[in-house]
Each structure stands twice: as C-alpha cells, then as structure tokens.
Fold this sequence. Notes:
Blueprint: E1 2-5, E2 12-17, E3 22-27, E4 30-37, E5 40-42, E6 47-52, E7 61-69, E8 81-86, H1 109-118, E9 137-149, E10 157-163, E11 166-168, H2 175-180, E12 214-216, E13 219-222, E14 226-234, E15 243-247, E16 252-259, E17 278-279, E18 281-284, E19 288-296, E20 300-306, H3 309-313, E21 317-322
Parallel strand pairs: 9-14, 11-12, 13-21
Antiparallel strand pairs: 1-6, 2-5, 2-7, 3-4, 3-6, 7-8, 9-10, 14-19, 15-18, 15-20, 16-17, 16-19, 20-21
Amino acid sequence: MLRIINAALNEELFFKIAGHNLTVVEVDAVYTKPFRTDTVLIAPGQTTNVLLTANANPGSKYMVAATTFMDAPISFDNVTATATLHYIGHTVSSSKKAVLASLPQPNATLVATKFITSLRSLNSREYPAKVPTRVDHSLFFTVGLGANPCPSCSSGVRLVAGINNVTFTMPKTALLQAHYFNISHVFTDDFPAKPFNPYNYTAPVNQSVNAAMMKGTKLYRLTYNATVQIILQNTAMILSENHPFHLHGFNFFEVGRGLGNFNPEKDPKRFNLVDPVERNTVGVPAGGWTAIRFIADNPGVWFMHCHLEIHTTWGLKMAFVVDNGHGTDQSLLPPPADLPQC
C-alpha cells in the first residue's frame, strides 16, 4: 500500500507509476469503494491510499512520476518529480533503462475529472455513509480573486482573494480564545450566507468592473449538530482556476459538482446522497462549482480555506463558530493551565 500526500504549496498533481495500475482504497483517511486507475489526481492538503500489485520481473525498473495539473492560463513551474520503482533480483539486465511513464498533459481536465468522479464512499454496513438529507443552513459561497486599490503599488491595485466578496483579516487575538472567553471586538458572526450582489459568476469579466473586496474578520455561527450545505461557486473575477478547499474540524460529503453557474432548481436533483465521497479537502473546478454537506458536531472555531498557500495569504478563507451542545461531551474543552500567552 502506498500513502500519497500532496505537500505542495500551490499545485495540484498527477501521480502515476509506469507499467502499473493503482487501486484507490482511501482518501483523506476515509475508505472508498476500490477502483483501478493508472493516474491519481491529488490537490494540496489531500491524501490518497492506493494498492500496488508488484508483479513485474525481478530487476526491472519503472518510473514513478508526479507532474502538475493546471487548468488555468497562468505560468507555473512545469517540472516533473521522478523516482524509480526497482524490483529486486537479476532476471532483467541491470543495464536496461527504466520504463518511462506516459504523463498527462498539464491541462488534462478529462483525466482529472474521470478520477474525481470515480470516488465513492464505501457505504458498507460497517462503514456507512451518513450523508445529511436534511439541511439547516443552505450556504452559497463564491470563491475567487479580486483587486483592491493600492496607492503604493506600481499597478495601483493589490491582488486579494475572498469568499462572498469578503477577504479575511486575521485578528491579533486568537479566534478560539475570543470565542471561549467571550472577548468582544475580535470577530463578528455576520459572515454572509450568500453574495451581496449576485452576478454571472463564470462569465468573462470586463476590466472596468469593480473587483474590490471588503475586509473583515467575519465568522458564520452554527448551533451544535446543525446540518450544513455549502455550494462553493468558482468565479471568473480576475482569473478562474481550481481551488482546493479544506475544512478544519470536520469531514464532509461531496454531493455534487458541475461546470458553469450552480442552478438551484436543476442541479440538486442530481446530487448523490447515497455514496458520495467523504473527505476534508475538495477541489472547486475552474468555471464551476462543488456542493458539500456536513454535520456541525464539533464545537469551537474552524477555518475553511483554499489550500493554495498564496490564496490563503491573500484572504481566501473564513471560519465557522460552532456553539456548545448539551453537557460536557458536546462542549468545548477549556484551554490548558499552561497555555502560553501571546
């Protein structure tokens, strides 16, 4: 078994081993229905476990390769990381070169989509897929880039990123500390459940359009055990590219995805509520959307953010504050007595 981890800062990766198929059995520490593939797609922050059948001749060598998947027209370091799978023994001449891997093109969207749509929860009696069928909070989050005025910048603007036109500002006091001790003026719990001004999110944007975003330390409040659905809608503001989104504190089910603007009348009818993949990091496709559901059964303050490091630093994140439930088992633990002071 191989455990594959994408530890890159800003690149999704294709992974494959020449001459071998891989059987995917787990993503983000959750079992999946096993399926065979010759190429794995993995975004920053994601993990994938695969089974490899080592059945080649002793002494043979095969290239192991990881290369970038990029679905946006931007420059990137198109370097292939390589290693060698070397079978012990001498049946094959040691002078024979390693079998090379046939790698997908950097913009191989069909390869990426095939892998993503093949992922399904195991949904067995021992490992059921407990997909929420009732939704208490139906949220619509636009995710993308923006440009705020910057008099000191040579271009006059500074690139930012945000959710629902809010670029997150990190506070000087820890959010969890402020929540537990009820410290005022650190954050507000008025994060918008939907965009303030709806528009055609995936259409090309005229450069004269105001692409500025508001700044704020805004959180969205949830009661304990609330069920949440989030539509993560990619936008074409400045640039449309795939955003791998990670939710702290919870696993979620990816119940749907598609290209273009999410249609609230038609698209939910195609949601998979039987065996959707369960994970903690999911890609929001360029020019498209992803739908996730989870149960807020973990009290505290939990970030949700793009796992592209540069986008996170630009403000492409927000946080949920989940209130206590009933009793100590459903309540936030107090900080340790020796917690260092900032």
